[in-house]
Amino acid sequence: MATPITLKVFRGDELVRTEQFNREIIKIGRLASAHLCLEDDKISRIHSVIEVSPEGNISIIDMGSAEGTFVNGKKVSRGALRLGDQITLGGLRIVLEVPEGAAAAAPPAAPAAAAAPAPAAPAPAAPMREVEKAPAMSRAVSAPAPAPAPAQAAKPRATNGPARVGFQAGAPAVVPAAAPYAPAPAAAAVPAAAPASAKGFKRAPAAPAVRPKLRPADRVSEDLSSESDLGVELRILWGDSLLEAATYVRPKQPVLVGETEKCALKLEGLPVPELPVLRFLDGDYRFTFTRGMTGVVEEKGTRVPFGELVKGRKAISDDTIQSAYWVPVPKAGAVRAEVGARLAIEARPKRPAPVKGAPFWERINYQFLNLFLVLLFLQAGFIVAANNFPYDTDIVADDLFKNP
Prior knowledge:
This protein is mostly beta strands. The chain is built from 5 helices and 25 strands.
């Protein structure tokens, strides 16, 4: 699971917003689909990407933006990030911090065990001696001043037998010698316990939030040479992680990839704002790449780089874009074009999913059906009212006969 981080966005000294993320890839830009959407004219649609590894390493990659990406005042195309670093994009400043919840959930370090004061050295054992004779009725025995007790409670002293002090009237009292005192071993350092509630129950640690990880892209190419009605799946990849994917079946217009609103897949860093990466002409799917892009065409386990295809004239020059070429998408392989350090566009043949017709009750326009039923009831009511209207036919007939 990726390390949770907090990004605080400032415009000057004013805090604009604070966002927390717990994902491996964080896209930053003006696009609404970006994970951190920023409104600034100097920021590109996808300006930069922050990558968080499962080990906790954080890095930022500039996606070919016009204004550039600055970390602590230094322009970088790719660099490592640490907590407290300041990222400048256009007119905004982003500060990288650790979420408060994550810091609180971290287990506190066990405090070092306080050095217990060394116990006082035991006094040398006094030999058996006689105490001065006391009066017959006296039972008080004077003893030497006890040594100061150690910091930790001492265990009872061990003796070989029951210690008895005899008192007899007119007889000397004998005090046995004290056994040597052995200090108890120091207790092992115990980690600090979790804070307890008022009732004495320990508070359970908060479960970390589980965020879905990016789905790894399928790298297995299926041999569809025998298929006739095929589509092509376009993928936007970050290393081996799938960012976006869409399937096209015989598109009438070229599929555009780039920065403009007309592009079906938004991507920055391409040599042209709109790249017609996929076309369907003369029964073939054509993948377009420019001179500045590197990549390979894989077919039945054989990988051929774009450079060899251009030199061998197997890649045909594109008439619509200068310094661009196209290659047919193989039915038993794929075409992969590298855009940046880890960003890539991939085209693979795909068997289109069968389209199932919706049942008739889902195709009914219930708004017109309701209107039709209302008009039907109104017309039926008018007919019934007209048939039941009381006409006095005798009066009408008499009036007709009375007329000269």
